[in-house]
Amino acid sequence: MTALVWCAIGLVLLIVGAELVVRGGTRVAARLGVPPLVVGLTIVAIGTSTPELAVGIDAALRGESDLAVGNIAGTNIVNILLILGMSALIRPLAIRMQTIRLDLPMMVIASLMLMAMAWDGTLTRTEGIILTASGLAYTATLLRVARREGHSVKAAFTDEFGVEPDPTPVPETLLSLGGLVAGIVVIVIGADWLVDGAVALARQWGVSDAFIGLTIVAIGTSAPELATTIVSTFRNARDIAIGNLLGSSVYNILFILGVTCIVPDSGIQVGRALILIDIPLMTAVALLCVPVFISGRRVTRLEGALFVSAYAAYLAYLIAART
């Protein structure tokens, strides 16, 4: 009963935090003259990925490597199939050209990097450094792209929000940024309580670390992305939604798993089932996004329904074959 109460409180905090993130992120983007997509890909994506970082480092230090790696693979599958699918099912999702040219390829590259590095059964500290450095390079590229947007973005924001973008730290901008940060903090606390409650329930059921990482912890640590995406969808701030999902999927591998691999002296071990099934499936999901995103530059309701159905099938397989 205690675990269920913590889960319920965590969900409430997620909803409140998501509202703050969407409001704050939209206003920050408007005032600074950068696309909401970039805010979603960077600040919001990194902020909502902090639960994965906490879970990964804690699991690595305790020697529960399958939980750490399973959480990343499972979270990325949840992000695309379940959360992106649900968002498109509610309302068709338009895809910007930057997403096709930069963010989608980076998600595919990061997935392929993880699959190649994990193939020998170990993610070393050196590989963790490579992943982290790649994440820094991706972030630097995003910031360069944001600066190139220029006057056209500022004019569009002025028309949409009635606010002149201002690069100086005026009180209004700081207030919006404070709301964004507060929302991320509330989301992280809510996700932590939700995951703690869910893992406590799973331990009572006696299931494996890999199963917990791929399902309960993955869905729990994806709750920030789910809450932010659903609120963004209903508030018609879709660029923050798509940026959050793709950015989180990239940062989960490059930053979160990269840092997790650096912490233990000997790196982390990767279970055989993760190598043969779950990481390749995560990569296949990333590759699946390529034709879906490019065809008409939108994710339709039908494609969203197929994504959600695919996740339901995967979850059914995990329950049937891995418990």
Task: Give an overview of the whole structure.
With 323 residues, the chain is an all-alpha fold. It has 13 helices and four strands. The model has no long low-confidence stretch (mean pLDDT 77). The strands form two sheets. The protein has a two-stranded antiparallel sheet. It has a two-stranded antiparallel ribbon with strand order 2-3. The chain has helices at 2-32, 36-48, 50-61, 65-90, 97-118, 125-148, 150-161, 171-205, 209-221, 223-234, 238-262, 272-294, 301-321; strands at 93-94, 122-123, 268-269, 298-299.
Q: If you compute it from the alpha carbons, what radius of gyration comes out, rounded to the nearest whole angstrom?
A: 19 Å
β-strand amount = under 5%
Strand element count: 4
Arithmetic mean pLDDT? 77
Could you say which overall geometry the principal axes of the C-alpha atoms support? globular
Q: Report how far the terminal alpha carbons are from each other.
A: 23 Å
Numbering strands along the chain, what is their spatial order in the largest sheet?
Answer: 1-4
User: Which bin fits the share of residues in helices?
Assistant: over 70%
What pattern of helices and strands is seen along the backbone?
A: HHHHEHEHHHHHHEHEH
SS content category: mainly alpha
Main beta-sheet strand count, sense and barrel state:
2 strands, antiparallel
User: Which stretches are low in confidence, meaning pLDDT under 50 for 5 or more residues running?
Assistant: none
Number of H/I helices: 13
